[in-house]
Amino acid sequence: MASKRVDQIANHLNYPKGMLAGQVAIVTGSGQGIGAETARLFANEGAKVVVSDIDGKKAEEVAKKINESGGSAITVAGDMLDDKYIEELVKKAAEFGNGKIHIIVNNAGYTWDGVIHKITDKQWDTILALHNTVPFKLVRAAAPYFRVRDNEPRNIINISSTSGLHGNAGQANYALAKAGVVGLTKTIAKEWGPQFGVRANTVAFGYILTRLTAAKEEGAFVTTPDGEKVALGIPRAQGAKAKAKEGEQHVDIPLRRPGTATEAASAVLAVASPLFSYVNGQTISVTGGRNM
């Protein structure tokens, strides 16, 4: 439903080739979830999408579906924590775009939770590297394609979380990292906006149905570069307490439900689109009203 509404908006505004027609977009962590939906919606709006994910098989599936649907996508799989991969990603994206890159969505990441007095240095360093250092390095590597004066739109969208805006028990590392994303976004907007017209915004998600919010008992995990498995999700008992009160679900969300990956991705598309052409340096909360 959400994607249909976005398509209808585009049609009403007379973008026959799509709101992102002719633009080249890198979407990190787009092998599944919000990233995959972002890639799909971008392609539907005419963008040439670079599907970036550590899971090459999933990334290939996303790109294949986009191409089979009439869109344009390539896969550049690899580990964002590898500096050489970041260089390769930018190089191949520029080649795909005939020397141009217009959009970066810094979406890749995961959680590695622990209470403050038990969290390890490895947990701390990995999450900050993934959510702060990696977006910075990707933006820095892509700088030559954004610091240009050709009157074409340029957008950098960094993904944050309500954990970064409000903190969250058991997520000191993730909360700090996602708060840091906001500062990075504002700095990009102030440095690259005046001369080059680059827009940079943050999209902060609340409770979205992804593997990070599914029950931990379902067994989803990621593997760190040195082979350690990190369990993802929320313990079922903890999730049940957050959802149920006097028989009512999601009482802390005014819309009384979690968001879908498509709804989350639709917000990213909106920020990247001409509809938000005068929105810069902002943090857009996509939460169903939670924490307002």
Automatic annotation (TrEMBL):
Its EC number is 1.1.1.100. It comes from Glonium stellatum. Keywords: NADP. This is 3-oxoacyl-[acyl-carrier-protein] reductase. Signal peptide: none annotated. It catalyses: a (3R)-hydroxyacyl-[ACP] + NADP(+) = a 3-oxoacyl-[ACP] + NADPH + H(+). It is an enzyme of class 1 (oxidoreductase). Belongs to the short-chain dehydrogenases/reductases (SDR) family. One of its GO terms (molecular function) is 3-oxoacyl-[acyl-carrier-protein] reductase (NADPH) activity. InterPro entries: KR_dom (IPR057326), NAD(P)-bd_dom_sf (IPR036291), SDR (IPR050259), SDR_fam (IPR002347). Residues 23-195 form the Ketoreductase domain. It comes from the Eukaryota. The keyword NADP applies.
